[in-house]
Amino acid sequence: MALIELRDVRRTFTVRARAGRFSRTKREVRAVDGLSFDVEAGECVGYIGPNGAGKSTTIKMLTGILVPSSGRLRVAGVDPARERVALARRIGVVFGQRTTLWWDLPLRDSFELARRIYRIPDHRYRENLDRCVELLDLGELLDTPVRQLSLGQRMRGDLAAALLHDPRVLYLDEPTIGLDVVSKGKVREFLREVNRDRGTTVLLTTHDLTDIEQLCDRVMVIDHGRVVYDGGLDGLHATGRSERTLVVDLAEARPPIEVAGARVVKVEGPRQWLAFPSRQSAAPIVSAVAERYPLVDLSVREPAIEDVIARMYAEVAIG
Amino acid sequence: MLNAAPAETRPPDPRADLTASLGLYASVARGAFRRYSTYRAATLAGTVTNTVFGCILAYTFVALWRARPDLGGYDLDQAVTFIWVCQALMPTTAIFGGGFENDVQTRFRSGDIAVDLYRPVDFQGWWLASDLGRAGYHLLVRGGAPLLAGSLLFHFRLPERPLTWLVFLLSVLLAEVVSFGLRFLVALTGFWLHDSDGVRSVTLVVAMFLSGMLLPLTLFPGWLGELARVLPWAALAQVPADLFLEHATGPAVLGPLGLQLGWAAALIGAGRGVQALATRKVVVQGG
Asked: Which range marks the domain in which residue B188 is found?
């Protein structure tokens, strides 16, 4: 059985809006609209989608603090909403924008508290704490009050606090939000270690696609409460109808040039940008340009995963 | 170390379970105690305020009792002592706010309240432990100063029997639990109202008035006095202050203590019920 299992899960909210002075209209909003997927133990899954796609609603249902309107949901063998407290001992949750740490007290006190909350046996606590301190470079921060930590340091503290009790599943909601490049790198390196070496299943929501590229073998894109893509990162390029870009430098500034199989997306003086489908070869387009226009220099740019996802969001919104 | 020995495989052992829970709550209370102790300037400011406020009230009472001796069954020294005991109780039992409910309100606003539900810990137990830790700190630091100031500046009536101190401390503990029970119910309205500030303001004024802090409840006329003396707010200041003044001694202390204990149990029970409804509301309807 999969560690996380969703079958046709739906969740609707009733939104009341003022219609007149005394009347109010009720409107049903489907935040999650028929989600079905499995996550096997040990996977690291990126769970992405535009704002309001239903990501947080899904995470809330997976942690048991929100009950689905219909459908079947199992995490580590239990129904989350029904056995919230039992499940809480088996999962770890980290929010980039929230903290579970004790604001006014040294970091060490929050870890001690986690030891008591999750009733972690002494030897495991010491082992896990040592490991987290080493990997997350927390040694010098243990006796610093949390309110004096930088965002990156606090985030590392939160990660450690969520993992001391050896959770089977780790939910991460934008764990790198607001962090600088170095801190992001540290967090990612640690998560990779947690997933690969300890076998902790990771479900990661983020708007930073580098997180996904560096950590996840599998990506789920959701929008309007449905899965619109589920598979490897490379598959996204094919599905998202991604485009490569040919940048040409001409001898002089010209109006947008005309080439079969490509379209000009940007002009800046003598430089023009031509977009064409990723699967197509650049060679015929290059020769077509060279034949008809005074070509000085050129380069081909591969599509960025951001652009692919952005196009996918846009298409879902239209379709 | 592939997730070896997950917590769920532990055999259930009620005694070990209880010990672990008590250990957790004790550590929450200790943390809260230490947390308040990190704000020294706030502590100092609060203590000065209490002392100044106590002086104003004490001089008012001196004038009042000179005009009407033995008002409400207190002589002048007792009336002044009553004021100072109440000033010590005010921060301790957070009659006028400043307890755990501020944290809960902040957590409602920021949405961190969701984090509390992810933990395998009882919400009410957690905050009770936290508020007891705070009360312990406030009793030691902010409670002591007004008593000291009062005893230096005025004719102060200290208990004649040593045992009274013990009874008084027990009564303060119960006062704090009753106070927590009331504030917990108010804080939970946040689950429905998203902001319990309005309800809090109203209940603070009610608490000031009906706890006897501003004017002893024995001065309240007729049925209002009789009613006020058995309401839960009486347990916050009037009851412990009267025990300090030895209005009841020996086995007679069981009456007032029983009133406090009854309200403490009833309010904690009510809090549990409302908490179950609140959790259900969040889980079923969304936060």
From this structure: 28-285
